[in-house]
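#lab-general

N.A. 3:47 PM
ok so I finally got the sequence cleaned up, no stray characters, all 719 residues accounted for. can someone with queue access submit it? mine expired

B.Y. 3:52 PM
send it over

N.A. 3:53 PM
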Amino acid sequence: MSINDRIAKELELKLNVVNNIIELLDGGNTVPFIARYRKEMTGGLSDEVLRDFEERLTYLRNLDERKEAVTRLIEEQGKLTEDIVKALKKANTLTEVEDIYRPYKAKKRTRATIAAEKGLKPLGCLIINGDFKGDLKEEAKKYINKEKEVNTEEDAIKGALDVVSEMISDEAEYRKWIRSYVFREGKIVTKGSSEEPTPYEMYYDYSEDVRNMPPHRILAVNRGEKEKILSVKIVANEDIIISYLENKILKGNKSTDEYLKESIKDSLKRLIYPSIEREIRSELTEKGEEGAIKIFKENLKALLLQAPIKGKVVMGYDPGFRTGCKIAILDKNGKFLENTAVFPTVPRKDIEGTKKTLKALIKKYDVDVISLGNGTASRESEEVISEMLKEIKEESGKEVAYVIVSEAGASVYSASKLATKEYPDLDVTVRGAISIGRRLQDPLAELVKIDPKAIGVGQYQHDVTQKKLEESLKGVVEDSVNMVGVDLNTATPSLLTHISGINASIAENIVLYRDEVNGFKTRKELLKVKRLGQKAFEQCAGFLRVMESKNPLDNTSVHPESYDIAKKLIETLGYTMDDLKNKNLEDIQNRVSEIGLTKLAKDLEVGELTLKDIVKELQKPGRDPRDEMPKPILKTGVIDLKDLKPGMVLMGTVRNVSDFGAFVDIGVHQDGLVHKSQMADRFVKHPLDIVKVSDVIKVSILEVDEKRKRISLTMKGIK
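B.Y. 4:20 PM
back already:
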């Protein structure tokens, strides 16, 4: 089966769609571009499906390359047979290919290779073939060679059995069966080596079926083993495996069978099982990594696509103890205006001085909302802010709110080259406060400046293959930025870098050109940017908006290649370009329905999926898809842990999602946990099926453990 046929079968796609996608990817088109502007060719597949497609295509191409390499290497040894060729063609995984290659692979010096050097391989072949009749000890005397340290017939037989053990271990069919059996019937068994309490206590005396172990437990066990707190092994019924091997290997020959039984046990214990155990542990780790990366991807995407708080003057508040809390004021467009430091926490605990300073800044700049980082000293700062906001309302009637914002990665950004370039004259801590403020105004534009791994919305993110994690998260950032689109005249180089078809040097060139000409007037001007050729323009143009353009289509996600179609559509429906400019196409869907989408598509010679997207965009030109996301909860007061009672219903924001549940900020400094069993009245396979990061949800208190600072929440039975 060809790669194209196999992907079509695995992903349940039509073969022509698979052929189209491969052609597009090989032609240098990016996933965001294909997902958005080549829907007719893909059948409207999402960016997530296309990313999976691309990953699978790479794996299968690597598999084919390895098959070719193994075929060549065996052929060079003069040992390639028709059976080997057939087995390689049938192999579906890299593991199977390596099993086939194992007997022909250059080996380190093993007991079997040492025995072969002593001339004992023919005796080993005699034993495993099972057709020898007579006394094996007598036969073994022929192989005595004192120069090669084969002093007795026992030495000869022992060396010959080492050869037999390796032959058994090298048999691909046996390894495949044993691997499958252990995976199906084996158990992971863990033991703890510490008498002290650790996060791994539940695994001190634990076992679970290999096939059922969920990703987060695999990675937890791996970490416990790495920290030398846990010992981990896979246990399976050895008798069943030995019975299988004996049925395959024994020939019913009294002269050799007892020796073969000895070799079977030795091969299994010394060679096959340790190797299979490593392979299965590696496979489980891969499964764990895939699960962890999937959760990180979903959480990161939800975080990046949080609804921005637009048109608000924001006070960024980076809390701290010894060096105080850093304050940064940002105007409605995120421009930095002023900074200061206040000391409401220990050791100074200047609460009145803090209130006075903050009130003056709020009045001076007419601050609408405070963006408070959730790190060290956040709780103490929140109490002071809450009191101060009540006083402001009593004194002037002005309503000022605050929002708790995750500050994960803010310190990484503050000390980065990018932050130094943006604010060369500001202290690292002030940059942190600016970042916290901007995360509220435009989470996407701010978070793309930070290494996604530092944002901290994953589980066991440090335990997974970092290269794989980086590639996956890079894809999420790219898809998110392109889904939203960016303003060509205000986007930073770090934001532009994530746009389809634009790399770091082109992003810098765009900004240089923009500064030279005092802003882009049209999308077409992109072609004047140094090193931005026709292909790059095709990939990026639809994701870049030019609000100042005379052509209102430049401020939509309609691709320039479809401008003529869009203009004909506007004309056909009885509108003008001025109507588009003035956003007067609200009833466009009704007019399209009157004529019929299929007829319109035929008349305009365009695909229905593309036409549908054009209509949607013309209805709300320049729309931000994030506006449809839940807005952050604006707070004015603080709740104490001791005020919580079972049955109390509260609104909360999902901060993180794991395999077993969701952590929800309900405004008490300590996130509560909604276990997946408490998310719905039906069975929940994974929490991501119900919630995502930044969702605003209604929860009820189940239990509060003040001593351990744990809050159990439920989403069930709430009206």
